[in-house]
Amino acid sequence: MDVRVVDHPLAKARLSTMRDARTNSAAFRAALQELTLMLIYEATRNAEVAVEPIHTPVARTDGYRLANPPLLVPVLRAGLGMADQAHRLIPEAQMGFVGLARDETTLQPTPYLESLPADLSGRPVLVLDPMLATGGSMVHTIRILVERGATDVTAICTLAAPEGVRKLEDSGLPVRIVTASVDERLNESGYIVPGLGDAGDREYGAV
Ligand code: URA
């Protein structure tokens, strides 16, 4: 499994702000947005570029653009806090949405929203979800993408638990992970330790 941990000092600083229980929602969202920029920047490091001639005021030179812009897929609700920043960095990207709720009987993630292009073959996909905890939601999301032909999927997560990384690995799905940290473990309530608490609640306030 390709797991890229972005441990740049600025990423560590923003993640520390997010972890700190004293950080309020506005500051948490701001840190999440800044960290998202760094994660997307790293995730697209090897993106294919197209070269075309451009003219500076002085001379002709090579110009570059993304040859195959990715589809951005925030997973509702917590992934919404990453969507605008990702789009700011890749304005030519399209955005789809996946909404998952937990079925309280089966405890399985159940989709209530799949707003995605029908055909994803040949298209890189960046899934945005701040927390890779058990990995259940991420596996479910990636299956939905693979059913549409995706073969190049990157999970962009501010934090990951080893259990979630293992679950993705065991799934055999075509995915790599870009994260700012792989933390110690999950606790008995399914929270990442040390983690940052419930990302959605911290972004938007508990509802
Ligand atoms: N989801 C969260 O928001 N936080 C966790 O620690 C685990 C899952």
From TrEMBL:
Allosterically activated by GTP. Uracil binds at residues 192, 197-199. It catalyses: UMP + diphosphate = 5-phospho-alpha-D-ribose 1-diphosphate + uracil. 5-phospho-alpha-D-ribose 1-diphosphate binds at residues 77, 102, 129-137, 198. CDD domains: PRTases_typeI. Its cofactor is Mg(2+). This is Uracil phosphoribosyltransferase. PANTHER family: ADENINE PHOSPHORIBOSYLTRANSFERASE (PTHR32315), URACIL PHOSPHORIBOSYLTRANSFERASE, CHLOROPLASTIC (PTHR32315:SF4). Pathway: Pyrimidine metabolism; UMP biosynthesis via salvage pathway; UMP from uracil: step 1/1. Residues 5-205 form the Phosphoribosyltransferase domain. Its EC number is 2.4.2.9. Keywords: Allosteric enzyme, Glycosyltransferase, GTP-binding, Magnesium, Nucleotide-binding, Transferase. Belongs to the UPRTase family. Binds 1 Mg(2+) ion per subunit. The magnesium is bound as Mg-PRPP.
